[in-house]
Amino acid sequence: MSNIVNQASYMDTLSLLKEEIRQARIRAHLSVNKELILLYWKIGRKIIKRKVELGWGAKIIQQLSKDLHHEFPEMKGLSDRNLIYMQTFAAAYPNLEITQALPAQISWYHNQTILDKIKDPDQRIWYIQKTIENGWSRNALVLQIENNLYNRQGKSLTNFKSTLPSSTSDLMQSLFKSEYNLEFLCLEETAQERQIEKKITDHIRAFLLELGTGFAFIGNQYKLTVGGRGTTFMLICFFIIQSFTVILL
């Protein structure tokens, strides 16, 4: 009986911890996305202000993009085209509190789509609310806009309840994979390196299988304890006949 109780208790605890991890991941990604969107809003506001005060034109925006990209080469979101989007974004949502509560909760791709396809301020807010509530992907958002959901379903703005979206929703999946968010955290290069490493590893594994008996692929990112210290090796291969081990750091 005690084993059954312990097993049930363990499974309940495991389930709770899994959900805690999922919720923490969602909050972390939402936080990163919010910081990025608010950064874009601040950049847009600053540029608009300089245009009014100093008469900044297209050439200065292009130079600004080059200088920013030189300082932050991993952030492709600092292109002159995106700087123009940032100005449009800041002009569309002049109120910081509204920007924090709604546009900052969806990806930059979603915001660009709404800026491009919707001109009415109330409609923009309505589609943002619906995107968050339903966890729409960008493509789903486009489809709903093209199907004129705003006029078909009702035009009134609802009292928006700030709840965490599901980790499996299309909206959250787009935030998990957002290139803008990865670049913002300087993670895209690391992700690309892992993809390259995976492709190399796949080729080596296939090559060893073709060689036949005597060759073995032990693993990649393989952790061993050497001299009392944990070390991770990129690749470990073993040639059985000669008892020869190949290690790539």
Strand content: 5-15%
Tally of domains: 2
Give me the Rg, rounded: 25 Å
Order of helices and strands: HHHHHHHHHHHEEE
Q: How many strands in all?
A: 3
Task: Report on the biggest sheet.
Answer: 3 strands, antiparallel
Structural class: mainly alpha
Form type = extended
Q: Residue share in helices?
A: 55-70%
Looking across the biggest beta sheet, what order are the strands in?
A: 1-2-3
Number of helices: 11
Uncertain spans? 241-249
Mean pLDDT: 78
The CA-CA distance between the termini, in Å, is 50 Å
Can you walk through the features of this model?
The protein is mainly alpha-helical. The protein has 2 domains: 2-186, no CATH class; 191-248, no CATH class. Helix content is 65%, strand content 11%. It contains 11 helices and 3 strands. The protein has helices spanning 2-54, 58-71, 80-92, 96-101, 108-117, 121-134, 138-146, 149-153, 170-177, 179-184, 188-211; strands at residues 215-226, 229-239, 244-248. A 3-stranded antiparallel β-sheet has the order 1-2-3. Strand 2 (229-239) and strand 3 (244-248) form a beta hairpin. Helix 1 (2-54) crosses helix 3. The longest helix is centred in the first third of the chain and has 53 residues, at 2-54. The model is unreliable at 241-249 (pLDDT under 50).
Strand and helix map with partners:
Elements: H1 2-54, H2 58-71, H3 80-92, H4 96-101, H5 108-117, H6 121-134, H7 138-146, H8 149-153, H9 170-177, H10 179-184, H11 188-211, E1 215-226, E2 229-239, E3 244-248
Antiparallel strand pairs: 1-2, 2-3
Short description:
It contains eleven helices and three strands, in the order αααααααααααβββ. With 249 residues, the protein is mainly alpha-helical. The chain folds into two domains: 2-186, no CATH class; 191-248, no CATH class.
